[in-house]
Amino acid sequence: MKVVLLAGGTGTRISEESQTKPKPMIEIGGKPIIWHIMKEYSYYGFNEFIICAGYKQHMIKEWFDNYFLYNHDVTYDFTNGRRERAFHGNKCEPWKVTIADTGLDTMTGGRIKRVREYIGNEPFMMTYGDGVCDVDITNLVRFHQSHGKIATLTAVMLEQQKGILDIAEDNSVKSFREKKLADGSLINAGYMVLNPEIFDYIGSDEEVLEKGPLEKLALEGELMSYMHKGFWQCMDNIREKNMLERYWNNGTAPWKKWDD
Predict the structure, then answer these.
(1) How far apart are CA 62 and CA 81, in angstroms?
(2) For residue 182, pLDDT beyond 50
(3) Pairing of strands 27-28, 2-7
(4) Is the pLDDT of residue 118 over 60?
(5) Which residues contact 116 (CB under 8 A, 6 or more apart)?
(6) FRET label pair with 89: which of 159, 170, 256, 259, CA 20 to 30 Å apart?
(7) Overall average pLDDT of the 239-260 stretch
(8) Rounded to an integer, what distance in angstroms lies between the CA atom of residue 219 and that of residue 176?
(9) CB 223 within 8 A of CB 166
(10) What is the pLDDT at residue 19?
(11) What does DSSP say about strands 96-101 and 48-53: parallel, antiparallel, or unpaired?
């Protein structure tokens, strides 16, 4: 199953760093946060990624193009009058990565629809390129396969609200709306599993996934929630970035399940 990562926004709320790089390339522990997210999925055996890029998309492409250079020791040998280069070590994830320029101003739903050709007619996973989580992705996929609905999202409880969910006893999502100041409900944390029918709910580039498509799926009984009581944290601002950095530097990052 392929993993789609939304990585095209400008990240205006963390402008201290996003002025010079796309938000998913902001580093935690010396690695872009998108790398951390990919390592999460890879831990569970999901290694094919489609990155929906936009703002400063060339920087994402260049980072992966130079992946060996950034992650290995290297010897340059000029003794024969030319440059010969040898990388040292065996640090190589089994990843297949497609980076698609989905436009500068395209909304979340539009970005997903733009990469349909890379996804194909099969279920896929999707999450945002600015949040880490310790959700059991294997169990998430099993849950999605068990209920037969079009979409599953991961729901968490936090004070700081995102998309507000009204969830029934059978875990079906009865309604989906954007936050209000007085809310204190379960929120959409991303980490979704989507059937290809989702494309029928997405119109133009201006389609926001979290508005029309998910709201309509909820009304039709086709949106389910996977309840996650563990760790989830987005990186919306410099305070949250620094918090994730402290987790990593202290060796207590809850999302890190892989071995070095």
Answers:
(1) 27
(2) no
(3) unpaired
(4) yes
(5) 199
(6) 256
(7) 95
(8) 9
(9) no
(10) 78
(11) parallel
Distance CA 228, CA 244 (A): 19
Q: Nearest-CA neighbor of 89 among 77, 105, 73, 75? A: 73
pLDDT at 181: 43
In sequence order, what are the beta bridge partners of 52?
A: 6, 100
Provide, rounded to the nearest whole percent, the portion of the chain with pLDDT above 70. 93
- Residue-wise pLDDT tens digits, 132-178: 999 999 999 999 999 999 999 999 986 544 566 777 878 888 777 66
pLDDT digits (tens, 9 = 90+) for 35-58: 999 999 999 999 999 999 999 999
Strand partners, 49: 3, 97
Closest CA to 6 of 64, 60, 70, 45: 60
| Residues facing 98 on adjacent strands | 50
Mean pLDDT on 189-208? 96
User: How far, in Å, CA of 180 to CA of 242, rounded?
Assistant: 26
From CA 23, how far away is CA 12, in angstroms rounded? 9
Q: Counting Cβ atoms within 10 Å, is residue 70 exposed (0-12), middle (13-18) or buried (19+)? A: middle
Contact 104, 171 (CB under 8 A): no
- Burial (CB count <10 Å: 0-12, 13-18, 19+), residue 111: buried
Q: Provide the 10 A C-beta neighbour count for residue 76.
A: 8
Residue 191: which of 108, 126, 95, 115 has the closest Cα? 126
42: which DSSP letter? Answer: H
- Token pair 């620094």 is at which residue? 242
Phi, psi of 39 (to 5 degrees): -65, -35
- Please answer whether residues 8 and 128 qualify as being in contact, where contact means their C-beta atoms are separated by less than 8 angstroms: no
